[in-house]
Amino acid sequence: MTEADLGADPEADLIARRARLMGPNVPTFYRAPVEIVRGEGVWLWDASGRRYLDCYNNVAHVGHCHPHVVAAIARQAGLLATHTRYLHRGVLDYLERLMATFGHGIAQGIMVCTGSEANDVALRMAQAATGRRGIIATDATYHGNTTAVHALSARRTPVGGHPDHIRFVPAPDGLAPAGGSAAAEAQRLGAAVAAAAADLEAAGHGVAALILCPVFANEGLPAVPRGHLDAAVAAVRGAGGLVIADEVQPGFGRTGSHFWAHDRLGLAPDIVTLGKPMGNGYPVAAVLARPGPMAAFRERTGYFNTFGGNPVAAAAAAAVLDVIEAEGLMAHAARVGAETLARLQALRHPWLRQVRAEGLFFALEFRDEAGAPAGEFVARLVEAMVARGVLLNRVGAGGQILKIRPPMPFGSEHAEILARALAEALAATPPRP
Ligand SMILES: Cc1ncc(COP(=O)(O)O)c(C=O)c1O
Q: HSE (CB half, 13 Å, CA atoms) of 138?
């Protein structure tokens, strides 16, 4: 079928087909969704051949379609693709390599296929290890889409309301920390976790875990100093609970300073979950833990996952580690991250209140004259960037934070393109429509 056969507007036809075949309200990026057909490095191409700078996709961690990862997947797919009930060296070699990047007793792993599955297992593991049910999460987070994990999303209430064993505490706020300073916010967070734990105890659930993303990626990347979570961690441990670090977004060196973002905070989680960048697009994720929680979970559940840790997944994940090491991508993230931050900090707009960064992860927060979240403005800014061939998106409770999280090979030349396009888009987008 040619484009002519599809009618005058093939894009509209795809949108109509999605609605017909996939049902209503299927998320798409951008008001005029792009049909991406090819990727290479930090670049994506649409069906008309137009090239876009990808400033958003952390799944393609070592660059879209990196030849080393593609070759590893193809080689293993041509040899064997079974599951972990047969013995296979690939998954063991990979776990050994992965675990060597962790400290604080993280020594065993379960391979799964998605970040949601990883967090689902992590919750069950904490519950199995503590014999308690209660979970504490931050109040604007997203940890995935299984029934148990989705219940941690404060913004989308499950049918029948949030389960009684879940409590929310306020996420750090980069712009206006609770109590007026980072130190006061850290103390308040500790007090909130202690109160949530006491409440869960009183309700008969007790506390199994506090789960959080160590850069609060879905909460807009608030600047969180080292030690900021110490009071919160002390409170949850004091109540007998564990700490789960969701490294699905910041892991694998993106922050530039540390391979894992929880290490930057000085946080020593009992359980860590990984996903998105792990297989550079091949669906592979993991739950890593200390031997105690792992044994409690394994013994209680006999957990098995058909696709998790299959030889192709292990080959993809190992190839990603190869590239991170061979291309020095963590040091690269630190260097280019600092350079990009300086360019973003030089941007001027009356509503641009704060520019935040963790290596190759950036957040630009916009608020209007009255301090209200400028979500509608940022939505139009995102569209103005797409029109200039730069793909990014927004986050935050009011959608007021521009989120920039490119594949790791993003270089100085790309930072220049991004900053120039942003300066133009800021100048061309009126504050109000
Ligand atoms: C922090 C975090 N955890 C977990 C998930 C879920 O991962 P997946 O979509 O692979 O299930 C996401 C997805 O966006 C995420 O942002």
A: 29
Q: What is the pLDDT of residue 3?
A: 46
Closest atom of ligand 1 to 144 CA is 6
248 lines ligand 1 (CB under 6 A): yes
Domain 67-326 is in which class? alpha beta
Q: What is the band of 10 on the pLDDT scale with cuts at 50, 70, 90?
A: low
Check if 275 has its Cβ closer than 6 Å to any atom of ligand 1. Answer: yes
Sequence ranges of the domains in the chain:
34-62+328-428, 67-326
Report residue 75 as tokens: 């080689």
Residue type, 100: A
- Does residue 252 contact residue 60 with C-beta atoms inside 8 Å? no
CA of 165 to the centre of ligand 1 (A): 21
The Å distance, Cα 243 to ligand 1 centre, comes to 18
Q: Rg (Cα) of the chain, in Å, rounded?
A: 22
**Fold for the domain defined by 34-62+328-428:** Aspartate Aminotransferase, domain 1 (3.90.1150)
Which ligand 1 atom is the nearest neighbour of the CA of 213?
1
Whether 34-62+328-428 and 67-326 share one fold: the answer is no
pTM comes to: 0.96
